[in-house]
Specification:
heterodimer, A: 326 residues, alpha/beta, Rossmann fold, six-stranded parallel sheet, two-stranded antiparallel sheet, 12 helices, 8 strands, B: 327 residues, seven-stranded mixed sheet, five-stranded mixed sheet, 39% helix
């Protein structure tokens, strides 16, 4: 894959990762001044996973994500302004301000959330894939979840059902090594996620989640098998979050050394080095990406600031499709 | 009109839905080869094949969640959960997804999902197969809860659930499956959210639903012998609740007895009572009364289970006591 990398697609991959990074840095800043409230889970460090994976999907595919989904939403092409407005709680947000950071939705891009119950998105992804199979739509469903979700019964139930019915689901386990504050080895007697998947009848492979090109290649390969009717696949994308679990988390459960060690594998600096080695990125181009991303983030904040609040009279709107008595 | 059982009426509705809409399919535990734990889906596999009559593993949370996903993806799934007790394993998907996705997505999604399950006691199945927990579901905004008590409603409310753009939960009282009644096989959907006066009367209103309806009607017949004219209301839908029909009846009879197979504490009967008191207090000649199941896990032994559940005799006795006291 790397050898075929064009200057244009290299720049596009890099720009998406930089956008996620800067967007989230800005989000953290806005959180500290109270513009964003609730829970805010940052993806910083994991950008290569969303960007690489999303590149390997088509617009017809479905995406189901977790509460740490700003990266997936941006990489799927959801406008930064609509996401920022959602975090502000504005009616111009992608979920009309009803969901916040954890519940981003965009049906036009087949982005089905934004699920904040760990493991809760997996059965929904299985069902979306079932609908696609029954309607012969030819699409696949990409389902992101974290390593914490493998402890849930829904993980095994969903893999089993998808394998049993040969459903077009691509399970993408973002293994950042911590279920909130509990290390994988402290909550799983069998910490090898690929082996768990194999036990449920789903072929699986591990991937370096800090390498955007490697992620893209692996997802393309797995997606092709799923699309080809071979049933579900699981990829374990080994990654790391550089920030705490959420803005509330004092991050007492990880060694500083461990975090610093992982930062040396930063997916953005690593990709920049690779591109520079291959003469695919000039310093001026990097600066241009940074400045265009900065402008996009600034515009997103301005859009969020200017967005309207939903009128309180609309509180009960859309509890049901057709309003009725309680 | 044709005489048929509640079970046959539900099956007829399933068959009609499967024939008329290619998006409809049924999935659940033993709905296919076994023919359904309560034989509701018997014969459907042969007619519609394994693509549309899907036997699932015993993974309630996941097959209910898959129903939600399939509904989002353009299908009209009907998910059968064997009993309400087993549905507790699917509460995460029901409460956190089915009920929330439309509102939480700012109106972008809708979940046209039908979930059917058997509820209630009276068959000596003890404390893990007999409870009436529909009240828990009725607590949740974003879903609708229907409780057909007659064969005609087993058909009509199921068809209505399928036509609804939002998740609808159908509670079929297991004791009712063999009960018989007249059903118009060409009839369409009933109206969700509409209670019915099953027996008009002047002296008191008995509000009930589901498996307690036949008992309430039997009680009303017994009361009539004593010269007491009871009106019996079948709620049919717990959410949204048809408060107007209840209040109109209470305005006429001035007395209300609410009969509910759930436990009394935090019961659906409590909700009905509260609405009568909030909106119809000055129509009342005496306190609203509730008759619910005894507050125990349902026992196996028949005499003990009978004593735990509302019965025609206890309903009639409660009504007589109200009339004695009030008047």
């Amino acid at each position: 894959m790397g050898d075929e990398l064009s200057r244009e697609s290299a720049a596009a991959l890099l720009r998406e990762m930089v956008l996620i990074r800067r967007f989230e840095e800005k989000s953290a800043e806005l959180y500290t001044v109270g513009k964003i409230r609730g829970f805010l889970h940052l993806y910083i460090g994991e950008e290569a996973v969303a960007v690489g994976a999303m590149r390997a999907l088509t617009a017809d595919d479905n995406v189901v994500a977790t509460y740490r989904e700003h990266g997936q939403a941006l990489a799927r092409g959801m406008p930064a302004g609509a996401i920022m407005a959602e975090m502000y709680g504005k009616a111009s947000g992608c979920s009309r301000g009803r969901g916040g950071s954890m519940h981003l939705f965009d049906v036009s891009r087949r982005f089905y959330g934004g699920h904040a119950i760990v493991g809760g998105g997996l059965p929904v992804a299985v069902g979306l894939a079932l609908a696609d199979l029954m309607q012969a739509r030819g699409a696949i469903t990409a389902c992101f979840f974290g390593d914490g979700a493998v402890a849930e019964g829904e993980f095994h139930e969903s893999l089993n059902l998808a394998a049993l019915w040969r459903l077009p689901v691509l399970f993408l386990c973002e293994n950042n090594l911590y279920a909130m504050g509990t290390a994988l080895a402290r909550h799983q007697a069998q910490p090898d996620i690929a082996r768990k998947a194999e036990a449920d009848g789903v072929p699986a492979a591990g991937v370096d989640g800090m390498d955007v090109l490697g992620v893209e290649a692996a997802v393309r390969l797995a997606a092709a098998a799923v699309r080809g009717g071979q049933g579900p696949r699981l990829l374990e994308l080994r990654t790391y979050r550089f920030r705490a679990h959420s803005m509330y988390d004092p991050d007492l459960y990880r060694a500083r050394d461990e975090i610093e060690q992982w930062k040396t594998r930063d997916p953005i600096t690593r990709f920049v080095s690779l591109l520079q080695e291959r003469l695919l990125l000039r310093p001026a181009e990097l600066a241009a990406i940074e400045s265009s991303v900065a402008a996009e983030v600034t515009a997103a904040v301005a859009e969020a600031e200017a967005g309207p609040w939903e009128p309180v009279e609309d509180l009960l709107k859309d509890v049901h499709t057709v309003p009725g008595p309680r | 009109m044709k005489k048929m059982t509640y079970r046959e009426a539900a099956r007829g509705a399933l068959r009609d839905a499967l024939r008329s809409d290619p998006r409809v399919f049924l999935m659940g535990e033993d709905v296919g080869r076994y023919g359904g734990a309560f034989a509701v889906s018997h014969g459907l596999l042969a007619e519609f094949g394994p693509e549309r009559i899907r036997d699932t593993p015993l993974s309630e949370n996941t097959f209910v969640g898959a129903g939600i996903g399939a509904a989002l993806g353009g299908m009209r799934p009907i998910v059968e959960v064997m009993t309400v007790n087993f549905s507790l394993l699917a509460l995460d998907q029901i409460v956190n997804n089915a009920a929330t996705l439309r509102h939480m997505s700012g109106g972008q999604l809708s979940v046209p999902l039908v979930v059917r399950m058997a509820t209630g006691g009276g068959r000596q199945l003890a404390a893990q197969h007999s409870h009436s927990l529909e009240n828990w579901y009725a607590h949740i905004p974003g879903i609708k809860v229907v409780t057909p008590a007659t064969p005609a409603d087993a058909r009509g409310l199921l068809l209505a659930a399928l036509r609804d753009p939002d998740p609808v939960f159908v509670f079929e009282h297991a004791f009712l499956y063999p009960s018989e009644g007249d059903v118009d096989e060409a009839s369409g959907p009933a109206e969700i959210g509409r209670a019915l006066v099953r027996r008009p009367g002047r002296d008191l209103t008995v509000v009930t639903y589901g498996g307690c309806l036949p008992k309430a009607l039997e009680a009303a017949d017994a009361l009539a012998v004593d010269g007491v004219d009871a009106e019996v209301i079948d709620l049919r839908t717990l959410r949204p609740l048809d408060t107007a029909t209840i209040l109109a009846s209470v305005a006429k009879t001035h007395r209300a007895l609410v009969v509910d197979e759930g436990w009394r504490t935090g019961s659906f009967a409590a909700e009905v009572t509260a609405r009568i008191v909030e909106e119809g207090f000055y129509d009342l000649d005496g306190p609203v009364q509730r008759l619910c199941s005894a507050e125990v896990p349902l026992p196996y032994a028949k005499h003990m289970e009978d004593a735990a559940l509302p019965q025609a005799a206890t309903i009639a006795a409660a009504a007589r006591a109200m009339l004695r006291r009030d008047g």
